[in-house]
Structures
1.
Amino acid sequence: MRKSTLLVFLLIFALAMVFIYGMIGWNVFVSFTGWTGGTPSYNLVGLSNYTKLVHDPLFWGSFLRTLLLFSVIPISLGIGLFLAILLNQNVKGARIFMIIYLMPFAFSLVVTGVVWGRMFAPSNGAVNTILRAIGLGALASGWYTESSTVMLSVIIATVWQFSGYCMLILLAGLKSVSKKKIDAARSKGASTLRIYRDLVFPRLAIPILTAVVVLMIFTLKTFDLIWVMTSQGQPGTSAYTLPVMVVVQARGLFIAYGAAAGNVLVALVLLIIIPYLYWIYRKR
Amino acid sequence: MKMSYVAVGVVVIIVVVAVAALSLRSSGTSPPPTGNIENIITDHQAGGSLTVNHWWTIDVEEQGFNVAKNGMENQYPNVAFSAVPVPGGSGGAMPSFMLPSLQAGNAPESFQSHPGYEVATYTGYLRSLDDLWAYDNLEQRTPEIIRDLCKSGDNYFIAPIGVHRTNVVWYNKQLFQSAGVTPPSGPISFDQFWALCDELKSKLPSGKNVLDLGDGLGTPWAATQVFETIMAGLDLKTYQDFINGVVTENQLIPVLDNFKKFLSYVPSDHLARNWAEACGQLFINNTAMFMHGDWVKGYFNNRGRSYGVQYGSFPAPGTSGMFGLVVDGFVVPKQAGNVGNGLRWVHSYTTVDTQSAFNPVKGSVSPYDDVPLTIYDDDYSMEAEQSLQNASTKFYPSITHGSAVPIAVLTGLHPKISQFVLDKDVGAAARDIVNTVNGGTYTIPWDITS
């Protein structure tokens, strides 16, 4: 490797060490202190913040709702695969459709939260208005204004945001399947279902895994959308996820406690990333 | 890997850390402004930059801020004004936003705050404004309650820009007329208020609402504000015990019972609207009444509605003669890049000209008694201003707007109130709220009953 290349690599490595891993390490340290209030305070309190987390029903509710958000992944993948298969048929205007389906992925989560907040407005939002107009008024609900449907609202908005990304990844995977092999299988009388099962889906394993890992990280970080759409985790605390809980603790200046909750989130991310990276490098 | 590469890597890491640390420290202290306060304020040719952080981002709030900004730019035309919004209202987001910047020494020239506990959050980071208070005669121009609230210990760290009152019920005259219901002409009790709500409920057409909450889409604090207004109206002693961190469950139960009754008149989709949109429902004749602060008046006035014509108000039940205080102001950090411009900003909005332009737009009243009453073109504002200047008014500092309780208590209170709005479980809420409130660290001994 040339020295100039190595220097650039080392510089980026150093920046990452300081501003990513260094800051994560700092957060871990703060979680073992008693820092509460506007002035930094580094008195060590051992595991008491983590013990408090274990006994805090708000933490467990937030944790479980964070895991609930993972349902975004199979739904987004399913819709993405469906769209990818459609777009792979070489229909006219496929490129334009692709751009339209991909556009939500370019929006910030704040924009998505504001837009879907309006669309889910119970009395005059687009969703309930359309449901009532097509005779499905029974499905109209309070959406993010009711504790029973607030997470469903978040999931729908998040799926809308990310299924375009899944479509793109899977479309690339579909296009990598050899057309000759498909034609050969067809000429031998293989059904479409068999072709997809034996030829296409095995080629989609890596793209699907990549999309799963990326979506897991996005959903773990979904804070902006929830914060904006549910007005900071309402009704009550029924839309609290770990990121929301961390921010609420920070706003109350419970810095060390919020850091502890944040470290749980980091641990969740590592639980996903490390096995993925290990598997990827083992394959090589 | 060769040792030389490892050595280079270590050196690079050390350089990056050193640069990061130095860049954080280098913006720490700024040289103090040259000259005394008079030299600073009278230098109308001063240049440089002025960054002001604020939370006035919704509707009439934003319009009011722009009026104050214009006032600054007129008085100091060479100062480059940069406004940094920190949305959310009621100041809830500001402390967690500002404190890291203050700790890193990257302070703006000024930022918005409320007196009382909110200002106390920034202890050690703020420049005393005693010299500015003296230069602008603010002690002589403000009522005692404002002076007392703005003082932290022996010093002033904040100067007020406007005062709002929270214990108000706004009503739509047309809806009352069409329902054949007579609005109250003055103070009412809780029994009278519920009787009024029941009458409206029975007479309003389908689809019209008696009350609204406005606690959705970014302003969850609106529910806490109703809670505090009901509490003050029921028993000011309970309010005092609450803000001194000694309230009991027995004291809170009647408050929550009445809050629960209030919620029975609020539509189930209240979380679909923030306070401005709840005002909008009043504006378009969908809601009959809205218990909220008097920035509502700015909302209506800025849309061509006139107080007493299309809309009116009466004191929240039980709060006759009371004034739920929301004092908005700005502070100047010690480590601001240009402290002089921060002081010029604070001075500029205390002038009679800016006060006269700002308060009618914002819907607030001026804390300064040399601002003529003629700037207000409605009975409500004149009455509010006179009430503010009247020593016999029963003032109580707002919990919701950062003055009355520590930030940690307020942040813990909001989700408890929100949970109560959701499940209306009086017992559980009383217990949770007492645990939250009485677990705080209180440094201001409030006395609002004597």
Note: The radius of gyration of chain A is 23 Å.
2.
Amino acid sequence: MVAIIVKNLSKFFEVSRKAKMHSKSKSNGDNSGKEFKAVDNISFKVKKGEIFGFLGPNGAGKTTTIRMLTGVLKPTIGSITIFGKDSRTESLHIKQLIGNVPEEASVYTDLSGWHNLLLIGELYGLSKEERKNRAEYLLKEFELLEKKNIKAKTYSKGMKQRLLLSMALMSNPEILFLDEPTSGLDVQSARIIKEIILEYNKNGTTIFLTTHDMDIANELCHRIAIINKGKIISLDTPENFKVLVQEYQAIDLSVENGLLKNEIEKLNYINKVQEVNGGYHIIVDDIHNSICEIIDYVRTNNLKIKKLITYQPKLEEAFLKIIERGGSK
Amino acid sequence: MNKSVDYEMSKFRSVGTQIRRSFIITKKDLRIYYNKPPVLIQGILFPLILFVALTIGRNIQSIYLISGMMAMILFLTSTSLGPIVFPWEAMQKTLERLITCPISIKTILLGSMWSSLIYGILFSSIPLILGSIFSVISLNFNLLLIIVGMIVAGLAFSCFSLILSVPSSSTPGSTMVFTILIKFPLVFMTPLFIPIVLTPIAYISPLTYFIDIINVSLGDLSVFGMFGILIDLIILSLLGLGFLFLAFFLHEKTLEKRFQS
């Protein structure tokens, strides 16, 4: 089942005279007219139960897209359908189904964590009993129960972000939109948030996630779309993205009794060997098989390994490569 | 046939839900904004300062003293909260979170309107209560008419305040300056603390119609003749509705500007 269908979606913003003078470098595409294209004709589908990553450099159009999906901005062109409901005609129905953690958003700092949650619960139409039970459960889950009656202005950034996520989960949404949920957070808060995203996804919640943290995207996302200058330039699984940067599979090796470069080059799966600080930096085609080959060779020749470090291709490298190319694989 | 009835019913239920949810916004606004500096300055400090400035050393009849104070306080307090809600929420970065809840922009505005009304009525009742306690006015005033007048005028003023928050600023300070520039001339156009003399300027100010209602409720005669109170109520209601729909229209048009980054 498809949770989100985005078809030919575009968002143009009017450019004020002042902004025109200052933002030539910030715009996506043509900035010569009265409008600039923040999002330019994008289409994609998100399956139910999927964690869908939306990556891109600053100013690429991620936040504008998420704002259109959550009903904050209206699309200039194109359509958004969420669980079969059209965002133009059934936006309130859609809002009832979603939870949202906007980028740099804040909680009501004059209210306690408890009252922030009750307020959201009330706005989603939960009964008094449901509100209290759900708020209690979420505060416990997010390790905020001890401070539930204290005004949120005293909370740390990580605690505020956890409260914000718990507010988004108050209505037990079908889809959760997270715009940079772990940006600038301490390790503990980031870990809690990551675990809860996985937990809710396991229980069937669809997650739409934008992040700059490639490790999180790699770890959590089932599929990733890369957006740049308002256009989606690539969409695939993290594994398939990493195939693009196979050359980043490498081994650092140094052996006690010495080992000749040409001997390593003769082994299978070895692509390139470079001498580095008395050892070798070996670029390989297949990391697992090449390790086996090296170890077999070392054993057969009674050599002793001093250092062996492996390097796997990273999503970050694939991302940078795609952005540099400015197009799909 | 059944389908269209279902559609109408769901639309009706949805309107009911949104009105109910607007009261949740009201509760939130009253809880958060009642003690914010712009609200305290415009809602409490300004009426006090203006009252002292406009009455000191003058021989004012008790009816006009009470009606003038009530009108000034109702106008200034009920227009103090509405204009700061949007800029404050934008500044605190809570607006986007609120908008993605299953409520429309109209619901948020209605919520602000109710909270402005409650705030205004609470404070403008003080002169009437004090006047009654200290026997400044006779106790056989028309309480029902005063209540109706306060609600209708309070709603009109609150709706007016929603228009003042249209400029898409995220700095409550600049919104405050803008609202002062609009509100003060209206106060000075109104025949406060004196019998109403209908000059073209007095017609423009919505406060004039409210003062007329209070004056009549306290025993004075309406300056609008036979249909005086009715005219006052109709004009205030029409103004309120006009301001409300204009606020809906303008806010829906300018909302996106708050999120252009």
Note: The CA atoms of residues 23 and 111 of chain B lie 6 Å apart.
